[in-house]
Specification:
alpha+beta, 7-stranded mixed β-sheet, two-stranded antiparallel sheet, 11 helices, globular
Length: about 375
């Protein structure tokens, strides 16, 4: 049985890597610290390369591919520190394609495939944990529709997004679902967060009796499965991004160790540096296996999907943090300078590590899944 990617998937990865290495370096990343943190040329080129159409079904103008086809591409986005909301829009596409009504798909998916529409998830809440069960925002029945009130935090690029995909509860029975809502809607207000990743843009989004109708509920009716799927897909994508961040940090560390001379020898010839690089490489290879497995589980909706995503999210977070810290140490004093830019990889990794569930939350999910499996077999 062949578990490797196909030659076409590797070729597409090389195309994305080649474009990003030529046109999107750390100077471009640093430039995003000013303004709205968006690079229209990057967005346009990624649309031309077909990145936004990968998960869009063919009947809506897309390529009809899966998360397995997307895994290597997202990993490249991590290596290049591609900013939000690129991955967020692609992941949201999966939710619309799987749970949207035919009218919603026809309205949204062709525009996403052409790179003309951005969509970001709005899930996290200040007083809640990472589980969907903790979501408190509620939509109450109001006339022939609903009235949504509550507050979301850490919504990436909420100010410039075209559509927010908002997780909320509905009515007295509290069933979960996703709402399609423009950030310019009456009753919606934004406040920017100061983020640890200076190239990122995150917002608190407040909803004050925002009116919605049934057509704006993804799928027409609330669906808890749509929220769970969006969280799992976002967590797996974060794992793939962190694997890319770690891979790039290792490459830079090896390059530096090969050219930095100490005691008339490259520092890479010293055993202490060799061991660090070897440990980093082993951890990254294990992370890739976990992230690719999560991508496969998403694509196939495998029974072990929840466990696979949580294994990937927790392990890749540990790896990215460890590799970024060790990479900075290998660079010595210059590794801590603002100008070299290594801190940008560490900052991106730290933000991703705590997005869509931290390591403790995901390890608890792995434990619960393992215990449930034992009980089924008993």
């Amino acid at each position: 049985m062949d578990f490797d990617f196909s030659s076409e998937q590797y070729m597409f990865r090389e195309s994305i890597r080649g474009f990003l290495e030529e046109s999107y370096d750390l100077k471009k990343v640093s430039a995003l610290m000013a303004g709205e943190g968006r690079d229209p040329r990057l967005w346009s080129k990624l649309a031309e390369l077909g990145c936004f159409s990968m998960l869009v079904p063919e009947e809506h103008g897309g390529l009809g591919l899966s998360f397995v086809d997307l895994a290597l591409v997202i990993e490249e986005f991590g290596r290049a520190l591609v900013p939000a909301p690129v991955v967020e829009t692609i992941v949201s596409t999966d939710a619309v394609a799987r749970f949207g009504t035919e009218a919603q798909k026809a309205q949204l998916l062709p525009s996403i495939a052409e790179g003309k529409l951005t969509m970001v998830p709005a899930i996290a809440e200040a007083e809640a944990g990472f589980s969907p069960d903790d979501i408190a925002m509620t939509a109450e029945v109001a006339g022939n529709g609903w009235s949504v009130s509550g507050r979301k935090i850490l919504v990436p690029h909420a100010k410039t997004a075209d559509v927010l995909l908002v997780a909320t509860r509905f009515g007295t029975d509290g069933k979960l679902g996703l709402v399609l809502c423009e950030p310019s809607r009456s009753g919606v207000s934004l406040r920017r967060h100061e983020a640890f990743d200076p190239a990122g843009r995150f917002y608190e989004v407040s909803f004050d009796r925002v009116r919605i109708v049934r057509d704006e509920i993804l799928g027409g009716d609330p669906s808890g499965r749509s929220v769970e799927r969006l969280l799992d897909a976002s967590g797996a994508a974060a794992a793939m991004l962190m694997t890319g961040v770690a891979g790039k940090m290792l490459d830079r560390s090896i390059d530096y160790a090969a050219q930095r001379i100490q005691f008339d020898k490259p520092i890479g010839s010293f055993q202490a540096i060799k061991h660090k690089c070897a440990d980093m490489a082993v951890a990254i290879e294990a992370s890739q296996s976990a992230a690719y497995y999560a991508a496969w589980a998403l694509a196939e909706e495998a029974p072990e999907l929840t466990k696979a995503v949580s294994i990937a999210k927790s392990f890749c977070g540990d790896t990215a943090r460890q590799v970024c810290n060790e990479g900075i140490q290998i660079h010595g004093g210059i590794g801590f300078t603002w100008e070299l830019g290594l801190h940008l990889y560490l900052r991106r990794a730290k933000v991703l590590e705590y997005s869509y569930g931290d390591a403790a939350y995901h390890r608890e999910r792995v434990l619960a899944s393992a215990l449930a499996e034992i009980q089924r077999r008993a």
